[in-house]
Amino acid sequence: SDPEPANLYCLNAAISACEKGGAWVEALQLYESIRSAQNTKNAVMPNFITVSSLLIALEKANQLELAESIYTDAVRDGVVSPWKRRRDYDGKLRIMMDLHQFSAPMAKIAIRSYMDSLLSPRRKVYGK
Length: 128
Known about the structure:
- The protein is mostly helical and 128 residues long.
- The chain contains five helices and two strands.
- It has a two-stranded antiparallel ribbon.
- A hairpin with a 5-residue loop joins strand 1 (83-87) and strand 2 (93-97).
- The longest helix has 16 residues, at 104-119.
- The model has no long low-confidence stretch (mean pLDDT 89).
């Protein structure tokens, strides 16, 4: 019988292990294999953990442009979003940037992306 395909938990653990071992190229290859298999029978979708682990690996390797590209794709695809609906101090519902669950690399990219959008009005802010 055919071996059971890897589930998302296994793939996330592998990407995290690559990040901890400094193997950013391998982490990126795993992520790309997940994304390229999305239209197959046993496809798994990358999630918040997948993207966060990969961004940590890419930041450690100083692959900042690549990390920003991965983040932008993840926001566009709805995998992550820095924007949340929250009530402010007077109870009004507002859309706010909430980075509490973001890793430091992901939070830096989210803030840089938003700041760039303020400086360049033509650039789209994904996820808002």
